[in-house]
Write a structure and sequence with these properties.
This protein is of the alpha/beta class. About 60% of the residues lie in helices and about 10% in strands. The N terminus is likely disordered. This is Protein root UVB sensitive 2, chloroplastic.
Length: about 450
C-alpha cells in the first residue's frame, strides 16, 4: 500500500513536468523562419526567429537567399563562389559594352547626337525592364524545381505575350517605350523560367552520364531550327505579313502553334524526380494494381496545368501546409508524435476533405513516400469521414513498414530519384527542445 501511495504522488508530478516541458518547433517557408509553441493554457504563440540579427547580417542573408541556391554554401560543390564572381564580372562588362555598341549603331545610322543619345537611353531603359523581369522570376526557383514542365510552358506563354506587345506597338507609336518595356519585362521572366527548367528536362533523358552531350545536341537543334524560323519569318514579313492586318492574323496562329509544341514536348519528357503530383500517382498505381510505375509510364498522365490536384486514390494528401495550422491542440501534437516517433513527417486528417502531411526540414523523398503510403492505407481503412483516428494511423503505419523496403527498391530500379522531395515552396518544420529541460 505504501508503494502504491508513492506511485500516486509521482504520477501527478510527472504529468506536471511534461506539461512544463517547453518544447517548440520552427517552421520555414520561402526563407522565412518562425518559432511556434503551445503555452500552459494551450494557446499557440508565434515568434520570428531572426529578429535579433544585426542589420548587416540580415542584408547579407537576404542577398544570399536571393542570388544563391538554397542551403548555400553546403548545397553546392567547391568553386561555386569563384565561378559566380567571374560570371558576375562577365555580365557587367558585357552589358556595359552592349550600351556602347547600341549607341554607336544609332550614331552610325545617321541620327543627330542629341536625339541619338536620348534614343540610346530609352533603349537601355527598355532593355532594363527585361532585367527586372529576370530578377522577379528568379524568386520562383523552388517552384520551378518542383514543376519544371509547367514553368517551361509558362515561359513560352510569357514570351509570346511579350512578342505580341511588340507586334502591336506600331498601332500606338506614342507608347512605344511603354509597350516595348512591358514586352521585354515578360520576355525577361520567360528567359529565366526557360533556362532554369532546361536542365531538369534534359536530365530526364540522360543515361550513362551523357547529360553534357544531350545538352549540347539539344542546343544545336535549337540553333538550327531558330535559323529556319528566321528564314520563314523573313518570308512572311515580306509577303502576307507586310501589312498590320496580316500580322494580326498570322501572329496569333504562330503563338498557338508555339505553345502547343512546347506542351507536347513537356508531355514527352519522363521527369524522374519526386514532387507531390508524381508521388501521389506512384502511390495510387501501387495500391490499385500492385505495380511500380516508371517515369515513362507517368509522363502522359501528369496534369501539366493543374499539378496541385488531389489524388483520392492516394489518400487525398496535401503537402506543405504550416504545422501550426494542421495541429490545433497540444494534445493532438503529442499524439501524432507518439504515432510517428522516429519519422520526419506528421499526418492529420481533421479537415475532413483531405489529409495534411507536414515534413521536417531534412525530410527526403523516401520520407515523403512513407507518409504518403501511411495516409493512403489509413484512408482505405477508415470507415468514417470524421478524420483518421490514431488506431487507424498505427495500423496503416505498420502496413507501410511491411511493404516499404521492396517498394522503394522497386522505385530506384525504375529510375526514380528518392533522395529528394521537391515540394516547391511548401512549409517545413524542425523540432527544438529547451536546454533547461534536457
Amino acid at each position: 500500500m505504501v508503494g502504491i501511495g508513492i506511485l500516486e504522488k509521482i504520477k501527478p508530478q510527472k504529468k506536471e513536468a511534461e506539461r512544463k516541458r517547453d518544447d517548440f518547433w520552427i517552421e520555414t517557408w520561402d526563407s522565412i523562419a518562425q518559432q511556434y509553441r503551445f503555452d500552459r493554457d494551450d494557446h499557440l504563440s508565434v515568434k520570428k526567429v531572426n529578429d535579433s540579427r544585426p542589420f548587416g547580417t540580415h542584408i547579407l542573408e537576404s542577398f544570399l537567399n536571393k542570388f544563391f541556391p538554397a542551403g548555400y554554401p553546403h548545397s553546392v560543390n567547391e568553386g561555386y563562389l569563384t565561378y559566380t564572381k567571374f560570371r558576375a564580372l562577365q555580365h557587367v562588362s558585357s552589358a556595359a559594352l552592349s550600351v556602347l555598341s547600341t549607341q554607336s549603331l544609332l550614331f552610325a545610322a545617321g541620327l543627330r547626337p542629341t536625339p541619338a543619345q536620348a534614343t540610346a537611353v530609352s533603349w537601355v531603359i527598355k532593355d532594363g525592364m527585361q532585367h527586372v523581369g529576370k530578377l522577379i522570376c528568379s524568386n520562383m526557383g523552388a517552384r520551378m524545381d518542383s514543376e519544371p514542365k509547367l514553368w517551361r510552358i509558362l515561359a513560352d506563354v510569357l514570351y509570346d505575350l511579350g512578342t505580341g506587345l511588340e507586334v502591336l506597338s506600331p498601332l500606338c507609336p506614342q507608347l512605344f517605350l511603354e509597350m516595348a518595356g512591358l514586352g521585354n519585362f515578360a520576355k525577361g521572366m520567360a528567359v529565366v523560367a526557360a533556362r532554369a527548367t532546361r536542365l531538369p528536362i534534359y536530365s530526364s533523358f540522360a543515361k550513362e552520364g551523357n547529360l553534357s552531350d544531350l545538352f549540347a545536341k539539344g542546343e544545336a537543334i535549337s540553333t538550327l531550327f531558330n535559323v529556319v524560323g528566321l528564314g520563314a519569318g523573313i518570308q512572311l514579313a515580306s509577303t502576307v505579313c507586310s501589312s498590320m492586318q496580316g500580322k494580326m492574323i498570322v501572329a496569333p496562329l504562330l503563338a498557338v502553334l508555339h505553345v502547343y509544341s512546347v506542351t507536347e514536348e513537356m508531355r514527352a519528357a519522363p521527369v524522374n524526380t519526386l514532387n507531390p503530383q508524381r508521388t501521389a500517382m506512384i502511390v495510387a498505381d501501387f495500391l490499385e494494381n500492385g505495380n511500380i510505375a516508371s517515369p515513362v509510364d507517368l509522363r502522359y498522365k501528369e496534369n501539366l496545368f493543374f499539378p496541385d490536384r488531389i489524388v483520392k486514390e492516394a489518400g487525398s494528401v496535401k503537402v506543405g501546409a504550416p504545422l501550426h495550422k494542421v495541429v490545433k491542440r497540444p494534445s493532438q501534437l503529442r499524439e501524432l508524435r507518439m504515432v510517428f516517433p522516429e519519422e520526419k513527417f506528421l499526418i492529420s486528417s481533421e479537415n475532413g476533405g483531405w489529409t495534411d502531411m507536414v515534413l521536417q526540414h531534412s525530410a527526403t523523398g523516401e520520407d515523403a513516400l512513407k507518409g504518403w503510403l501511411v495516409a493512403a492505407y489509413a484512408s482505405n481503412m477508415n470507415e468514417s469521414r470524421c478524420g483518421l483516428t490514431n488506431d487507424v494511423l498505427v495500423d496503416a503505419y505498420e502496413k507501410m513498414g511491411d511493404v516499404f523496403p521492396s517498394f522503394v527498391s522497386g522505385l530506384r530500379k525504375k529510375g526514380w530519384h528518392t533522395d529528394q522531395f521537391l515540394d516547391g515552396t511548401g512549409t517545413r518544420f524542425s523540432w527544438y527542445y529547451d536546454a533547461k529541460f534536457s
